[in-house]
């Protein structure tokens, strides 16, 4: 009899449990979840729509301590595999801008089919149970909870997720458990998170949403950027946050650039500014290009009085103003918390696990999802890794490789 314990009833834990429960009659599966509800964070993903994967995924969509590991993973678990997995559970999928969603566009559909599959197989989910200790021995693993209960398993899957997106007041102790089992943990940091600054004008632009390109050296992303009273947010900011947050660990600040008119060249904008009515106030001109609050910040930074007539600007001042709009410098000095982030970077080094997500240091132990040193961009990439890692770990156990 194979008796598998899964610590964590999030995306990867639920996927692993479904595969194990459907795989063989002589497999016993138990899920242990410290929260009061299984899959709680799933309900929040994709603004409640659950972008569970993406139609096109490559290794470049992930930050990882071993990029080759991600390449091998994607060869074994593709977007079509993700779609097929959920279809086997009875869920239809829909595509929107490359993202894969449940056909209902409701995250509850994803969670419901997972939980229904486990309910049908009578898989117990022990909620409000926080694991405090794991002891490997000749029989497998002895797992103790903070509530004083003890469980024995022949195999163990650690699928604890991360502290991202949660306001749990209890400390996230999965990394300590893994280090006690001999694993190396790269420092966990928030990712897919807002970036904060202290330039002094943040309150003036707060509330503005604008399409922009955000760049950090050679890396860039374009989309809707939210300007807040603390700094900058939005998907383009999130896509660069992994690197920005990591660099902030070594430096007091990181400089990013914002192009507030990415579809227009500097040459075109300069010509438009030169061709405008000479008696028109420069603020009036910029209000036709940008939100007023942002235009006012830009003019103040360039020391241009808002009511200055366009005809009073020299050609050099016009070029400088347009250049500033196209390459607006912003000094980042901080970032959002784990609770404010969508995912955590860092975790167990990938060279310490097999391609089946089994521990190279502790036989019978499997580590999946966000606990590993691999995090993806916005757009379903992190959930794809979660489903795939849980499924592959479960399949390895069923093949008897544990």
Main features:
402 residues; elongated; 21 strands; alpha+beta; 26% strand; FAD/NAD(P)-binding domain; 2 domains
Shape: elongated
Indicate the CATH architecture of the largest domain: 3-Layer(bba) Sandwich
Strand order of the largest sheet: 13-16-15-14-17-18
Largest sheet: 6 strands, antiparallel, barrel
State the CATH topology of the largest domain.
FAD/NAD(P)-binding domain
What's the tally of helices? Answer: 12
How many discrete domains?
Answer: 2
CATH superfamily of the largest domain: FAD/NAD(P)-binding domain
Mean pLDDT across all residues, rounded?
Answer: 96
| Helical amount | 25-40%
Distance between the termini: 13 Å
Structure report:
With 402 residues, the chain is an alpha+beta fold. It folds into 2 domains: 2-189 and 342-398, FAD/NAD(P)-binding domain; 195-335, no CATH class. The chain has 12 helices and 21 strands. It has helices spanning 11-23, 67-76, 79-88, 107-120, 174-180, 202-205, 235-248, 266-275, 282-287, 292-301, 315-326, 381-398, and strands at 2-7, 27-32, 53-54, 62-64, 93-96, 99-102, 125-126, 131-137, 140-145, 150-153, 155-158, 185-191, 195-197, 208-216, 219-227, 231-233, 254-259, 328-335, 343-348, 365-367, 374-376. It has a 6-stranded antiparallel barrel with strand order 13-16-15-14-17-18. A hairpin with a 2-residue loop joins β8 and β9 (140-145). α8 packs across α11. The longest helix has 18 residues, at 381-398.
